Amino acid sequence: MTQDFSEWQWVNEPAKWSAGEDLLVTAEALTDLWQVTHYGYSFDTAHVFGRTMPGDLRVTTTFQGAYTDQYDQAGAMLRIDEKNWIKAGVEYVDGRIHVSAVVTRGFSDWSMLSVDGPVESVSLELTREGDAVTVKYGLDGADPVNLLRLAYFPPGVPALAGIMCAAPRGEGFETRFTSLTVA
């Protein structure tokens, strides 16, 4: 996946990451993305890497992570600011891998789908068209054709489009992004 990341930027750059054949990112401990709902707290400390895009776009990525602790998470993200974003990917909950999506417009909501058995990798596609984002996924090398979420996203506002990872309760973990395209 050797790629030019010169136009990309970090929000909460991690201490350890590298770009070469793969993009390796180590999520630091006590990092998260969430706004208010149910838990009453707000976090904007997850590691987000992307490039700013003005309108319609598509983010595709395939990745695998060493998830071990409750809420370890990695995936794709669209971010306008700390209160307007969508993240989708894998979240480790109650000892199991889940494909999940969080949509935040001031307040976060969360939806997830439990995955049976071990999963080597997950592929995601976030497509922004007008005022909507379609989130699709695929497991273990399958193309992202399974619909996970269709959500409102403010149109005509530039958004940082790329990847994210966080370790809300654990000591941190590494994610290997083997493909990543933003167009």
From TrEMBL:
It comes from the Bacteria. Pfam families: DUF1349. This is DUF1349 domain-containing protein. InterPro entries: ConA-like_dom_sf (IPR013320), DUF1349 (IPR009784), UCP022704 (IPR015987). It comes from Sphaerisporangium corydalis.
